[in-house]
Amino acid sequence: MHYNPATEKRYDMSVAARIICASGNTPIMANGTLVDRGETQVTVQCDQSAAAITPGAKVVLTFDEGSERWTGVVDDIRSADGGVQIRVVTPNAHAADKRDYPRLHAGLPIQYRISSESEAQQWVDGSTIDEGWQTPDPYMNFSVSGLRFEVHEDVQADQLLLVELRIGEGAESWRTTAKVIRVFEGDDQRSPTAAVSFIHLPEEALSALSELTLQIQDSLL
Fold first, then answer.
1. CATH number for 109
2. Could you tell me if residue 200 is inside a domain?
3. Sites in the chain below the pLDDT cut of 50
4. How confident is the model over 200-214, as pLDDT tens digits?
């Protein structure tokens, strides 16, 4: 526990935190742990994935698995303990609320595989399927109902896909299935992309996508 004499409150420094920054061209999402916390500032230790965040950027911090969310501005960022420490000031702390869930852009590490109905059921039931997986660029459009990402040329509309989904590097993965709604042609520089709609999406994955949406929306306000 940590004692902050300015606020006469004690905070558990083992609390996990997540930071979202959508100020640049590519949204940054990094996991970390609480270092210090007061009424108007909070410091979080993150890995090097947060090093691209700059002072003055607007960010959203979440604690306690997303039940608490702070919106603020990066006051200082410095190297520490093999990663970076980020201090956020004048945050607005509030409980997670309900909001519309538009399609947004973020890094979602996934793997996908074209599947039959029987394979999809085996996958949902926990069977291991080793072959045929593809790993697209993680930066994609997403919503709580589906994804749009780069695909191999073999992918066609109405096909069934197995999708292993994660929200952030090193996070828990979920077994999902999705139907290809539409395939968009690529060009010389980019592969085709497919818009897919989730068929099977675990409740925990839905909650994680919902919370990520709220975090990005807050960082854009």
1. 2.40.10.220
2. yes
3. 1-11, 94-101
4. 988 888 878 877 777
d(CA 59, CA 149): 25
Please say which residue of 33, 61, 96 terminates a domain: 96
Q: What is the DSSP string of the chain?
A: -EEETTTTEEE-TT-EEEEEE-SSSS-EEEEEEEEEE-SSEEEEEE-GGGTT--TT-EEEEEEGGGTEEEEEEEEEEEEETTEEEEEEEEEEEEE--------EEEE--EEEEEE-HHHHHHHHTT----SS-B---SEEEE-SSEEEEE--TT--TT-EEEEEEESSTT--EEEEEEEEEEEE---SSS--EEEEEEEE--HHHHHHHHHHHHHHHHHH-
186: containing domain = 104-213
Do residues 117 and 181 share a domain? yes
Distance of alpha carbon 96 from alpha carbon 93, whole angstroms: 10
Q: Which amino acid is at 74?
A: V
42-56 pLDDT per residue, tens: 899 998 888 888 888
Backbone angles phi, psi at 118, to 5 degrees: -65, -40
Cα dist from 146 to 82, 124, 197, whole Å: 36, 17, 4
